[in-house]
């Protein structure tokens, strides 16, 4: 029994395949015939339109030939001729008005073509309108986001201003409730606190300045005093260079014999002893130590003159030309008197200074 059932299934499958192929062939034939029919209909409509155009042209040519004279382009000045022209024009309008328009026959694809053309134009217009609307929408969204950010900033500023106004009002109310003595004591205390703060800052900056002088500036000032390079031209000046000295061209000398500490700073001591006298505990300082003492003493004297002002106007009188003074002038820390090169003062950085 099983082989018989298998053969029946196989035959059923074959019949289904043959039926599907026949149905597909029939569908293809229907589609081909429909396409052929559409092409035939379009061809017939095109031919009828061309025949209609030819007929209208022929009628126009016959009308032109039948006319003995061409129609006037301007109204005639004769009233009778003018009346005839008007009657002819009226007759033409009446004929056109009462005549039936030429419409495509039933089943013609022209209405469908016209509808398709109008629909395509409308679709194109709608797409362009959508693109324009999208662009405008993006621009409006950008402006909206910008306005939102501005609004948030304004709200935050308003909030902070309200808090500040509330604190000021609270402080004002507290001040009104206090006596004059309490207010004065608070102001004195605040000034003392500010004074202590500024004194600590001054000490900190002075210490930083002294460290810079001892570690970097003093060696370069000493080198310039000993005939070496100008301050800033050679940054790596060491003790050995200062002890060996410099040539006439400002180059460091190479000598294995170093002077003793007793005579190492004697030149600077003799030249600027009035500045460093009493400011250096070591009786025999080196060139670097002597130069550091000279720069510190010069800065202190300039600062005292600036704070004291008086008749000198913040100027001090130099006993001689020094590398420290020249460096302060080049660095725009101090300036010479415009009429006396021996007078020097610190530049008041709170005011405009002369170049």
From TrEMBL:
Compositional bias (Low complexity): 247-265
A cellular-component GO term for this protein: chromosome, centromeric region
Cell location: Chromosome, Centromere; Nucleus
Spans traversing the lipid bilayer: none
Entry keywords, A to Z: Centromere, Chromosome, Coiled coil, Nucleus
Region (Disordered) location: 246-267
InterPro entries noted in UniProt: Centromere_CenpK
Coiled coil: none
GO biological process, alphabetically ordered: kinetochore assembly; mitotic sister chromatid segregation
Protein family membership: Belongs to the CENP-K/MCM22 family.
Protein name, as recorded: Uncharacterized protein
């Amino acid at each position: 029994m099983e082989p018989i059932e298998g053969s029946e299934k196989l035959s059923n499958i074959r019949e289904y395949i043959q039926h599907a192929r026949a149905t597909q062939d029939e569908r293809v034939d229907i589609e081909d015939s429909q396409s052929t029919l559409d092409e035939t209909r379009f061809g017939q409509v095109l031919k009828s339109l061309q025949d209609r155009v030819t007929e209208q042209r022929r009628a126009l040519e016959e009308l032109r030939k039948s006319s003995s004279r061409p129609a006037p382009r301007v109204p005639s000045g004769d009233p009778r001729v003018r009346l005839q022209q008007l009657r002819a024009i009226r007759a033409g309008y009446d004929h056109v008005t009462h005549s039936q328009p030429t419409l495509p026959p039933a089943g013609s694809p022209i209405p469908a073509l016209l509808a398709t053309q109008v629909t395509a134009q409308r679709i194109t217009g709608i797409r362009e309108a959508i693109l324009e609307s999208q662009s405008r929408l993006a621009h409006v969204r950008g402006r909206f986001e910008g306005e939102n950010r501005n609004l948030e900033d304004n709200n935050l500023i308003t909030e902070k201003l309200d808090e500040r106004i509330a604190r000021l009002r609270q402080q004002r109310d507290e001040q009104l409730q206090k006596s004059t003595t309490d207010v004065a004591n608070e102001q004195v205390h605040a000034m003392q606190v500010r004074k202590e703060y500024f004194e600590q800052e001054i000490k900190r900056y002075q210490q930083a300045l002294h460290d810079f002088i001892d570690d970097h500036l003093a060696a370069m000032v000493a080198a310039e005093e000993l005939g070496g390079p100008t301050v800033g031209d050679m940054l790596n000046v060491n003790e050995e260079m200062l002890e060996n000295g410099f040539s006439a061209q400002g180059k460091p000398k190479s000598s294995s014999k170093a002077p003793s500490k007793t005579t190492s700073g004697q030149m600077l001591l003799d030249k600027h002893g009035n500045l460093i006298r009493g400011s250096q505990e070591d009786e025999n300082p080196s060139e670097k130590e002597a130069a550091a003492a000279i720069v510190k003493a010069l800065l202190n004297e300039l600062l005292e003159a600036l704070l004291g002002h008086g008749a000198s106007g913040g100027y001090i009188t130099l006993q001689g030309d020094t590398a420290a003074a020249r460096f302060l002038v080049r660095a725009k820390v101090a300036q010479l008197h415009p009429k006396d090169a021996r007078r020097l003062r610190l530049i008041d950085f709170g005011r405009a200074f002369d170049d």
